[in-house]
Amino acid sequence: MAAEDDWATEGVVDETPAFEIPGVELPEVKLFGKWSLQEVNVSDISLVDYIAVKDKNAKYTPHNAQRYQIRRFRKASCHIVERLSNSLMMHGRNNGKKLMSTRIVKHAFEIIHLLSGENPVQVLVNAVINSGPREDSTRIGRAGTVRRQAVDVAPLRRVNQAIYLLCTGARESAFRNIKTIAECLADELINAAKGSSNSYAIKKKDELERVAKSNR
């Protein structure tokens, strides 16, 4: 009888948390100890699975040592704030300076909260949604005859492009400028979240979509 019970329960995983203490509630995990992630909402239904801000992705500090490159689409589970921080580590002189990029993001979030009064993580999510191009053009042809064809952009590619454009805009506006890169990043995120044409990312997105429209 015992053998039958073992066979019946084989492969069943006990999902009861080992650290749960009766009558004790665990504190909410807030980014940098300040910003709640429970109230952050992803308004674009196509990007819900690719912008990681849910409780299971919550962290006090946007840093972990996972290897997202070893499996396709794995980086979609990386927290959106960490992806922004990683993208700031661009160009040779900034490679590997994760502490510096995290400090820039933290300072930018504090500026966003002072200027807009909103949760800066929500501002970042809105900026990513508004900055990702929905249509792009690709080269099609062979034997010397090449033409451009408009194509739809995959959701993960939209998020990748948006993060790249936001960081590039902040970096270029901070170069040879009295403003710090944290202030420029805050301005870029606020303008992109509003959909303003003052944002570098919004202008580039509109340019990509305009070229794609002409190649339909």
From TrEMBL:
<dbReference type="GO" id="GO:0003735">
    <property type="term" value="F:structural constituent of ribosome"/>
</dbReference>
<dbReference type="Pfam" id="PF00177">
    <property type="entry name" value="Ribosomal_S7"/>
</dbReference>
<dbReference type="InterPro" id="IPR000235">
    <property type="entry name" value="Ribosomal_uS7"/>
</dbReference>
<dbReference type="InterPro" id="IPR020606">
    <property type="entry name" value="Ribosomal_uS7_CS"/>
</dbReference>
<protein>
    <recommendedName>
        <fullName>Small ribosomal subunit protein uS7 domain-containing protein</fullName>
    </recommendedName>
</protein>
<dbReference type="InterPro" id="IPR023798">
    <property type="entry name" value="Ribosomal_uS7_dom"/>
</dbReference>
<feature type="domain" description="Small ribosomal subunit protein uS7">
    <location>
        <begin position="59"/>
        <end position="216"/>
    </location>
</feature>
<dbReference type="InterPro" id="IPR005716">
    <property type="entry name" value="Ribosomal_uS7_euk/arc"/>
</dbReference>
<dbReference type="GO" id="GO:0003723">
    <property type="term" value="F:RNA binding"/>
</dbReference>
<keyword id="KW-0687">Ribonucleoprotein</keyword>
<dbReference type="InterPro" id="IPR036823">
    <property type="entry name" value="Ribosomal_uS7_dom_sf"/>
</dbReference>
<keyword id="KW-0689">Ribosomal protein</keyword>
<comment type="similarity">
    <text>Belongs to the universal ribosomal protein uS7 family.</text>
</comment>
<dbReference type="GO" id="GO:0015935">
    <property type="term" value="C:small ribosomal subunit"/>
</dbReference>
<dbReference type="GO" id="GO:0006412">
    <property type="term" value="P:translation"/>
</dbReference>
